[in-house]
């Protein structure tokens, strides 16, 4: 079956653009967290920060999929 939900994609696009900006912030946080965890492996909080940053990086895809699923064909 082909999914034809362009309306959900178009409405979700501005929110995805905001999510892209957040993912860039997440990328910077992830790089800093990775460097800190390599320099001081005893800092377990740096791993948590890096995992949170990875969730921010995946956010645009999640937002677009969520909007596309909300609108019928």
Outline type: elongated
SSE run: HHH
Indicate the percent of residues in helices.
over 70%
How much of the residues is beta strand, in percent? under 5%
Radius of gyration: 16 Å
- Class of secondary structure makeup: mainly alpha
Main beta sheet: strand number and arrangement? none
Low-confidence stretches: none
**Alpha plus pi helix count:** 3
| Tally of domains | 1
Question: Care to describe what's here?
Answer:
Helix 1 (6-39) runs antiparallel to helix 3 (59-70). The protein has 3 helices and no strands. It has helices at residues 6-39, 44-57, 59-70. It starts with 5 loop residues before the first helix and ends with a helix. 82% of the residues lie in helices and 0% in strands. By secondary structure, the protein is mainly alpha-helical. It has one domain (15-70).
Concise structural overview:
This protein is an all-alpha fold and 73 residues long. It has one domain.
């Amino acid at each position: 079956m082909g999914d034809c939900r362009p309306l959900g994609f178009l409405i979700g696009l501005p929110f995805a653009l905001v999510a892209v900006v957040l993912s860039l912030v997440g990328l910077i946080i992830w790089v800093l967290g990775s460097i800190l965890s390599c320099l001081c492996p005893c800092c377990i909080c740096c791993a948590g920060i890096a995992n949170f940053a990875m969730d921010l990086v995946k956010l645009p895809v999640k937002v677009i999929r969520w909007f596309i699923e909300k609108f019928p064909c």
